[in-house]
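Narrative summary of target 7.
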Amino acid sequence: MSNNIPKWIESNSIVKRTKFFLRSISPWGVEGMNLYDVLRFFGLGLINGSVSIRAASISYRILLAFFPAMILLLSILPHTPLETNDVMDALLLFFPGETVSLFELTVNDLLEKSHISILSIGFVLTAFYASNSVNAILTGFNASYLLEKKGNPMLYYFISLLLLVILVVMLGVAVFLIGFSGQGLTWLSNKGLLPGELLPWLNIARWTMSLILVYFSVSILYHFGNPDRDKWRTITPGATMTTILIVLLSVGLGAFITYLDSYNRLYGSLGTFLLLLVWVNANSSILLLGFEFNVSVHKARNEARSNLQ
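Modeled conformation, tokenized:
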């Protein structure tokens, strides 16, 4: 990478000091491995890896799976004791700002009426498109510029089905913890069945558990999406970065929409759909960035070990 940098930049005193500082940081415990080498590989992966194109491909598949999944979920809800307001409040916790209004009418219709035919069709479509979206994520990882070994596309189809089941369970529990368990805790507290002083701690615990489930979901995707993996690593720099960025994106986009009332007046429901597209694409890009960072750490570690031999 340094061969492509002009000499006048490399000879700059600030650049030299920055490189020296980055080379002095080695949090991975491998002799000869430092943050500069990790960032060097990371830059190569971003420049040559067509991240934006891969993110667009993943976003397209996720959006195809999104609406059948919503219809399936909402078709099940009439058979539960949940009220419409409870469901809308839960959705507001997951989707930034006004994006919930995009499917508010559909939510009301599906909750008020039982649609058995929609339930069966929704299950088939959701299974098909959701497995395709997981496969698109794995394929997007496989297209990384830094990977020396590429995965088998046919094998990814079978892996995506297995991962779909695991991710549905884990994310389903996360949805329940964030969306509905809070209302249950409040109800128990109001009935005097739960001490009020415990409520804040239980709310912190359920949000923490939800973040842990999201973190593990990202780690699972990164593990199976990397053909160069050597062993299972639950906690990785890329998964940590991805989880933090996903949370910051949702909070930031929600705040942005809240304070930008003129956006809704100008674009209306079309603007809501555009915001959903931006949110999905940004999350897809974040997933790829975290994966590229993990691969960069892996490459830098292997390079350091080979230099010691």
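The CA atoms of residues 45 and 262 lie 38 Å apart.
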